[in-house]
Amino acid sequence: xxxxxxxxxxxxxxxxxxxxxxxxxxxxxxxxxxxxxxxxxxxxxxxxxxxxxxxxxxxxxxxxxxxxxxxxxxxxxxxxxxxxxxxxxxxxxxxxxxxxxxxxxxxxxxxxxxxxxxxxxxxxxxxxxxxxxxxxxxxxxxxxxxxxxxxxxxxxxxxxxxxxxxxxxxxxxxxxxxxxxxxxxxxxxxxxxxxxxxxxxxxxxxxxxxxxxxxxxxxxxxxxxx
Amino acid sequence: xxxxxxxxxxxxxxxxxxxxxxxxxxxxxxxxxxxxxxxxxxxxxxxxxxxxxxxxxxxxxxxxxxxxxxxxxxxxxxxxxxxxxxxxxxxxxxxxxxxxxxxxxxxxxxxxxxxxxxxxxxxxxxxxxxxxxxxxxxxxxxxxxxxxxxxxxxxxxxxxxxxxxxxxxxxxxxxxxxxxxxxxxxxxxxxxxxxxxxxxxxxxxxxxxxxxxxxxxxxxxxxxxx
DNA sequence: CATTGATACATGATATATCAAAAAGGGAGC
DNA sequence: GCTCCCTTTTTGATATATCATGTATCAATG
Lengths: 226, 226
Description:
Keywords (chains A, B): DNA-binding, Transcription, Transcription regulation
Pfam families (chains A, B): FCD, GntR
CATH topology of the largest domain in chain A: Four Helix Bundle (Hemerythrin (Met), subunit A)
Number of helices of chain A: 10
Largest interface: A-B, 27 and 27 residues
Shape of chain A: globular
Helix content of chain A: 55-70%
Oligomer: homodimer
Low-confidence stretches of chain A: 1-8
CATH architecture of the largest domain in chain A: Up-down Bundle
Distance between the termini of chain A: 35 Å
CATH superfamily of the largest domain in chain A: GntR ligand-binding domain-like
Largest sheet of chain A: 3 strands, antiparallel
Protein name (chains A, B): GntR family transcriptional regulator
Domain HTH gntR-type (chains A, B): 10-77
Strand content of chain A: under 5%
Structural class of chain A: mainly alpha
Number of domains of chain A: 2
């Protein structure tokens, strides 16, 4: 959870931003839910200023949206918006993984295997929040080894846009594995140090995971006009 | 300039943000220059709040940097940071162009040709600010046709990081064309509707343009430790 | 003359106050 | 019972006040 734990010695607004970002990524916030500056400030025990600053940044990140002058709510991605996100991720995530490859050692792969086991166990237990976190950790442990901080930042921004959708997703259809879990292909490619297979495994994971999104969004789209 | 002209009916902080972003992109701000909230607020005739909000967002964009609690200044990219930026752009910009291809018509190409002429003329006149703007316009006119707003947002964020560097660049070595201008290859690929050639032309333009950056940053690097 | 420490000052961070606009609620009229 | 209009309330936006911390200055001391 690296990215989210450094919540100290930072400005209040940065702390709040990190915290909200974490909640978004972890699907703790439903799309469309309204956020009120005053309420949040009160519940956090701070003034409105840092809360507002945090929210504004999330708006710019595309994780929240703001009706012109008025209210702020968790963004509701349309199917097309989701597809664009996926298209961008398809370019960037495999690349990040390939860049990480030279910095992958045995210990790291074992660490990933543990995280993956956690993921599988969580899914078996239907503990979806835990599964989401494990999935995030699996991916970003790898990306962080790329040594490309800017790229990682871009990817995290994309993930927090998608996070809230996961709320709807799990009840709906969620990870439907028709074969072995894609993460296993990823692990295998890492072991073999096969860059092309690695990139392909990431693409497959993304598309595989995306199917449920697309199905869900298609089923919702008609009413999502607002 | 589309992205920068909608400076009305937006919140003050959004206006200030847009304005600063424009100045960054257009190389109106030197790397390392310090920005003071109070000063800016005064010179803009507003209070500090919206200025601070705008600056914070630019910090998150990586265009400005902030010594922990202390001062805010225009970010100074290291060579490695620049190279990472370029690496990301190399993935995204050619793709954006290819996605734009289906929406390119004759009129649009003529528009691009005009912009390119402006660029060439500006360079001949050594009017570098104008050249920069024309170059920005040339690229983003194309990217905007991709119909991928998120991608464009990501790219603009990358461009405003690089903008300030251009200050140093032009005096230094700047666009050294060893052959025909890369934009001509881009235009040709657009006319032929040749996606692969188009992608390649964008890659070439990026690398070509990047050479001067790299040369400059390498010459500077030793002292840039701070 | 160099060094150190105390004080004044500048600046970003946070809190609070004020404003304007939008939403929500309620009552009068049909 | 429904609709329209007015009032009240809520809320985000902006301005201002306060706080904490880093920086600079300068004098006292060795």
